[in-house]
Amino acid sequence: MKKINETFVCVHCGYHVPLAARTCRNHCPRCFVSLHVDGKIPGDRASACDGWMYPVDYKLLNGDYKILFACASCGKQHRNKRAIDDEVTCLPDLIKEYRSRFLQQ
Ligand SMILES: [Zn+2]
Ligand SMILES: [Zn+2]
């Protein structure tokens, strides 16, 4: 299995996401939306779901953000570390917005 770290265009906000430093990026640094492409191991790209994953919660662990993502299609949740250039100052507000959308479903 190959770990992929590549540039991509965000499906949600259209931002051209640059390569992440040091990590295997899978979410957008602006809106934090990603596609559900990983299976059991982060970065394995083993899932065929392709649903949109939204951040729904986060916590600070040893000064690092651990973000909980939930898939809008299948409901799967997983945690991921922030990437170094993520705009985490926006994260609490984004989570609030995404959560209200989830709760309506
Ligand atoms: Zn985005
Ligand atoms: Zn899914």
Itemize the secondary structure elements and their pairings.
Blueprint: E1 8-9, E2 16-17, E3 34-35, E4 52-61, E5 64-71, E6 77-81, H1 91-104
In helices, the fraction of residues equals: 10-25%
Please compute the radius of gyration using only Cα atoms. Answer: 13 Å
Percentage of residues in DSSP E strands: 25-35%
**Spans where pLDDT lies below 50 across 5 or more residues:** none
The count of strands amounts to 6
**Average pLDDT number:** 85
Task: Please tally the helical runs, counting DSSP H or I stretches of 4 or more residues.
Answer: 1
- Choose one word for the global shape: globular
State the major sheet: 4 strands, antiparallel
* Bound small molecules, deduplicated: zinc ion
Order of helices and strands: EEEEEEH
- In total, the number of domains comes to 1
Widest sheet: strand ordering: 3-4-5-6
Salient structural properties:
globular; 105 residues; binds zinc ion; alpha+beta; 28% strand; four-stranded antiparallel sheet
Q: What does this protein look like?
A:
There is one protein chain. This protein has 105 residues and is α+β, with helices and mostly antiparallel strands. The chain has one domain. The protein is built from one helix and six strands; from the N terminus they run ββββββα. It has a four-stranded antiparallel beta sheet with strand order 3-4-5-6, with helices on one face. It has a two-stranded antiparallel sheet with strand order 1-2. A hairpin with a 6-residue loop joins strand 1 and strand 2 (16-17). The longest helix is centred in the C-terminal third of the chain and has 14 residues, at 91-104. The model has no long low-confidence stretch (mean pLDDT 85).
